[in-house]
Amino acid sequence: MKKEFILLLMFSIHAFSSGDLCCQISKPAKKVTITFDWSRIQTYGSNQLAIWIEYAEGNYLKTLFATRCTVTGGFKNRPESLSEWIEKSGFINAPKEEIDAISGSTPLTGKQSITWNCTDKSGNPVMNGEYIIKMEANIQVAKKMYYSGKIFIGGKKKKTSGEVTYSSPELATGNVLFKNVLVEYK
Fold it and tell me: Residue 133 region, left (φ>0) first, then alpha (ψ -120 to 50), else beta?
């Protein structure tokens, strides 16, 4: 009887540590989803967008998306294109693989969604705590709009709408590229 109990115990430990049982009790992956309404503007020097994450104290963490035109060298011809993001991220010296991983076409008009898997630039999970979601968009050449919203990672689901600002106050009453920004931690 004692021998059978030991064998059963050893089998149970092996099954738990090496099989699906282990996966079933693991914590679900953390993620943050950023949704917004995007409206393309048909004018020179517009429609450039960057979305990135900063630590609570304002240091750069990771880029989630940037329009391919700016990332692949457009900032050299138009230094005002996504200049805050370029300065914070250091993408001027980024390797091609890193550029390819975050760049994409200018979004089409309509509802947009970007997901952050709560990892840093190297793919390591970030610690629970407060992070800042940032967006920068060129309305026309140096005329810009920005978004900044804090989100707490860890614990219960959370939402924030943050704040949209403009490089000049009068831009708020004209054509804007994004609105209705919502950041959700799940």
Answer: beta
Question: Is residue 102 classed as helix, strand or coil in its secondary structure?
Answer: helix
Torsion angle of the four alpha carbons 37, 42, 46, 47, in this order, in degrees rounded to the nearest 10: 30
Predicted local confidence at residue 78, as pLDDT: 85
Q: Please tell me the distance from the alpha carbon of residue 142 to that of residue 181, in angstroms, as a whole number.
A: 22
Domain holding 57, by residue range, is 28-185
Minimum mean pLDDT range among 20-24, 96-100, 165-169 = 20-24
Task: Give the C-alpha distances (Å, rounded to integers) separating 57 from 32, 62, 94, 130.
Answer: 19, 14, 23, 9
Q: Looking at the domain assignment, is residue 60 inside a domain?
A: yes
Domain count, the chain: 1
Mean pLDDT of 42-48: 88
Do the domain assignments include residue 131?
A: yes
Q: Is the pLDDT of residue 182 over 80?
A: yes
